[in-house]
Amino acid sequence: MNYNTSGIGSGSRTSSRTFEFGRTYVVRPKGKHQATIVWLHGLGDKGSSWAQLLETLPLTNIKWICPTAPSRPVALFGGFPCTAWFDVGEISEEGPDDLEGLDASAAHVANLLSTEPADIQVGVGGFSMGAATALYSATCRTLGQYGNGNPYQVNLSAVVGLSGWLPCSRTLRSRMERSYDAVRRAASLPILLCHGSADDVVAHNHGEKSAQALNSVGFRNLVFRTYNGMGHYTIPEETREVCTWLTTKLGLEGS
């Protein structure tokens, strides 16, 4: 699917980019369909990698949608192209944010969820850069708009971020302070963040600071879990935590 960012991208850019998203993989629920979650892979990966893992989870009421990010030049790799939800030069609160890429990926997630039945709860989650995109989607949902001001119209019920960080954290507070509705929506949106203490790709303190930044602007229904000794990967203890949390927050039956 193509997205031309002249319509959804950052208004600060005079040029526009077209993003061509890769293949989407779907894991169908084995039981009664109660929720649909878009799950976003990390930098350089593809949707099929996570679809294989998600299929093994004991969450029989969830439909998982695992898209593949566009292939694009990534500044972190010296401009070498790979699958990425947005461009990134450094993983820190001080680095520049690729609003155009973030908006395009958040819009892709919203589009994937927009055709779900009205009685189905929807959410977004991801790993590493996928987690960063999921958290950006959470802020768009809370603010009611993308970074470029276009309306965000998907009602997210749950957000999960593994080994990730929060993009646009420097401007979030000022944007939240302008809207009482945003603060109210933030307080009611469940978010689970998990991070390994030995993560050498996205440092644990980036994840911790992201959780603190979200909490400080009103995301009070947020849980941050640290896994001692875990690096930049997932472990069974973490996936069990995700399963338990999703079952509780989404009120799933028989999972």
From TrEMBL:
Pfam families tied to this protein: Abhydrolase_2
Record-annotated Phospholipase/carboxylesterase/thioesterase domain positions: 25-248
A GO molecular function held by the record: hydrolase activity
Entries under InterPro entries matching the protein: AB_hydrolase_fold, PLipase/COase/thioEstase
The protein's name in its UniProt record: Phospholipase/carboxylesterase/thioesterase domain-containing protein
Biological source species: Linum tenue
Lineage, opening ranks: Eukaryota, Viridiplantae, Streptophyta, Embryophyta, Tracheophyta
